[in-house]
Backbone:
């Protein structure tokens, strides 16, 4: 239990699901052949960490931030610009990390100190405004960021798909740089999630929950709430930037659409709410469900849309078009906020009761 | 403290005029920086017109928050819906809209604006009942619910109208500019200014001269007290919400004509602008919202002219500056 910081899933079904998901992710290169499966698995890992860091803010402190993709984007762009500018070597990777992480933390500190000082309700609005300004900035400073095209780069020798580490063995598997990169992503994501689990189960995490439940009372008990909230904000930003670095390393690309766009922010919100706020485990469940649906349900929608248009129905083909899948997710989102605000994890833990975390205001 | 006789009128509350002077001072400061007087006049007119449009869109949001502590992240959806509905009127009557007569043009424009307001007002009714009523008093859920509502509304617009940009040309008689000497002021901007001013005056009259307005202002200041006096504040709130949505729809039509195009993503872009305005003005304050809108528009126009690169972050800088000065916005109305 040490590794889970004394906070096990507390539900047999949930434990089973988590074990299956994690084993499946770990074995993806061998179980599911093909580039798409590996991409989906890597994306699930990255997003599980990203969503878990968002859960630290939304679920544990009850603050809504719309700037989370900004930190994610800072991580992505830092590593991309470093590798693009310095060439594919490990020094560039180190530079990206050394520049990206502190930059994200500093920005989070500035936003936190500034906007947590004013009325709490402003925080969501201010982060939204800052994030949108950052997005415009990133697409305008094209000499640095590559503008709308983003930056493609090459990885160091060891991580390239062409690098064969173990040639084909009896079972027909080959370990190459791509698979090594996948395990790098997997391991670091897992590590970050475990660290977050440790954070939320520490005395510090308790204070965060106290602030979520009643900020005034937490303050009256002598906790400096602005300090705690800002600290949580910086931690979340660090992990988000870390996830951004992993994402860029996996894609060998950083651009506005993959790391900064507002739709990623909405995806994160959906994953947190569907998985269950204030649980950390919910991030893994939410990311898995969402990304599987995104990658495999969309093609199903295409089929349904075609069938509807062949049947001559009026509005349905437009509503079922694969590009409109966010519409259905939005409805699902509203329904899950309304009907089970504690998400999948809360449901499994409390058997349908509404006692889960994250129902505060 | 001086004693008051019973017959004396109540002492007038002190007027806080510093925020009113702010945009005026900003405009005057810009004269030497811009250099040419005619450019300055054009820029100022442009800022005022843009500011009025933003004010129309933002006024509902600030009242809704002030009155009921409801933060509507989906306010931008009403704007987009208003603009799309207007295209329904404009498309079949394109010929009359392009006829060279102001009266014929207005005969298309007015019904389009009214229909937009009606539809977005009705949508406001729906949103309030379905999305906001179940989560009264829970900020976190309100933000989540209304964000979900924004996604659904935007995607529905895409599904119904398609993802392409719909052109929305200005009616013929509103094109071009009034030329005074070497100053050119676009005709449409004058119209936008007039409509904005009319809306502002109407809201002020309703708020300050009617019983309804008295109740709204009282509700913004202290909701429980109004309820204790036996008024159904929920119903009042619903009315304000619908009116705010309708105004957002009107703002959407005006913005679409200003940009001469309609696209569902306009709600995203404007949501940020509106939030900045509402924060600057102080949540719940109509006067603050009005000044905030003009300030944001001024910074965008002057900034875009003087330092184009800065225009990207000018809104944020403005917001930071104002909040440093007054952490709760220009006019802090609510006690929250």
Residues:
């Amino acid at each position: 239990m040490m590794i889970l910081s004394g906070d096990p899933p507390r539900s047999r079904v949930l434990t089973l699901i988590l074990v299956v998901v994690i084993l499946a992710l770990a074995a993806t290169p061998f179980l599911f052949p093909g580039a798409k499966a590996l991409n989906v698995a890597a994306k699930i890992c990255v997003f599980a960490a990203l969503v878990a860091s968002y859960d630290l803010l939304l679920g544990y402190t009850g603050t809504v931030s719309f700037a989370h993709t900004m930190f994610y984007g800072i991580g992505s762009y830092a590593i991309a610009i470093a590798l693009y500018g310095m060439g594919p070597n490990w020094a560039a990777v180190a530079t990206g990390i050394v520049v990206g992480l502190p930059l994200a933390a500093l920005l989070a500190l500035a936003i936190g100190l500034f906007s947590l000082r004013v009325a709490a309700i402003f925080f969501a609005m201010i982060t939204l405004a800052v994030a949108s300004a950052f997005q415009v900035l990133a697409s305008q400073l094209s000499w640095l960021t590559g503008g709308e095209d983003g930056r493609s780069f090459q990885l160091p020798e060891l991580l390239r798909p062409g690098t064969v580490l173990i040639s084909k063995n009896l079972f027909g598997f080959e370990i190459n740089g791509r698979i090594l990169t996948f395990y790098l992503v997997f391991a670091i994501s897992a590590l970050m999630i475990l660290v977050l689990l440790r954070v939320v189960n520490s005395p510090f995490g308790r204070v965060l929950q106290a602030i979520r439940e009643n900020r005034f009372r937490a303050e009256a008990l002598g906790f400096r709430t602005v300090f705690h909230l800002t600290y949580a904000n910086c931690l979340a930003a660090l992990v988000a930037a870390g996830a951004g670095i992993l994402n860029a390393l996996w894609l060998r690309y950083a651009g506005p659409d993959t790391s900064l766009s507002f739709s990623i922010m909405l995806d994160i919100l959906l994953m947190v709410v569907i998985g269950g706020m204030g649980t950390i485990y919910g991030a893994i469940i939410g990311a898995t469900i969402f990304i599987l649906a995104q990658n495999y349900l969309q093609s199903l929608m295409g089929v349904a849309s075609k069938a509807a248009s062949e049947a001559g129905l009026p509005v349905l083909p437009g509503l079922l078009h694969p590009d409109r899948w966010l519409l259905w997710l939005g409805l699902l989102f509203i329904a899950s906020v309304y009907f089970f605000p504690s998400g999948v994890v809360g449901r499994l833990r409390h058997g349908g009761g509404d006692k889960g975390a994250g129902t505060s205001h | 403290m001086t004693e008051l006789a019973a017959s004396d009128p109540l002492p007038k509350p002190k007027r806080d005029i510093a925020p009113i002077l702010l945009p005026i001072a900003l405009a005057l400061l810009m004269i030497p920086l811009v250099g040419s007087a005619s450019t300055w006049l054009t820029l100022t007119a442009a800022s005022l017109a843009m500011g009025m449009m933003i004010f129309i869109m933002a006024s509902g949001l600030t009242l809704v928050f002030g009155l009921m502590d409801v933060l509507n992240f989906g306010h931008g959806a009403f704007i987009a819906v208003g603009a799309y509905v207007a295209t329904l009127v404009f498309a079949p009557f394109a010929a009359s809209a392009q006829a060279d007569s102001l009266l014929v043009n207005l005969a298309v424009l007015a019904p389009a604006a009214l229909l937009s307001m009606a539809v977005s007002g009705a949508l406001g009714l729906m949103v309030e009942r379905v999305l906001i009523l179940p989560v009264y008093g829970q900020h976190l859920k309100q933000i989540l619910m209304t964000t979900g509502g924004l996604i659904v509304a935007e995607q529905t617009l895409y599904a119904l109208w398609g993802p392409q940009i719909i052109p929305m040309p200005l009616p013929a008689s509103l094109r071009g500019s009034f030329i005074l000497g070497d100053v050119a002021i676009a005709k449409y901007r004058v119209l936008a200014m007039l409509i904005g001013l009319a809306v502002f005056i109407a809201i002020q009259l309703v708020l300050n001269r009617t019983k309804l307005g008295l109740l709204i202002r009282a509700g913004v200041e202290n909701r429980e007290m109004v309820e204790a006096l036996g008024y159904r504040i929920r119903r009042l709130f619903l009315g304000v919400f619908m009116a705010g949505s309708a105004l957002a729809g009107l703002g959407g039509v005006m913005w679409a004509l200003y940009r001469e195009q309609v696209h569902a993503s306009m709600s995203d872009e404007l949501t940020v602008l509106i939030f900045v305005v509402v924060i600057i003005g102080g949540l719940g304050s109509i006067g603050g919202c009005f000044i905030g809108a003009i300030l944001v528009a001024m910074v965008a126009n002057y900034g875009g002219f003087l330092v184009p690169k800065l225009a990207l972050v000018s809104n944020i800088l403005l917001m930071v500056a104002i909040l440093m000065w007054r952490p709760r916005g220009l006019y802090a109305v609510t006690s929250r």
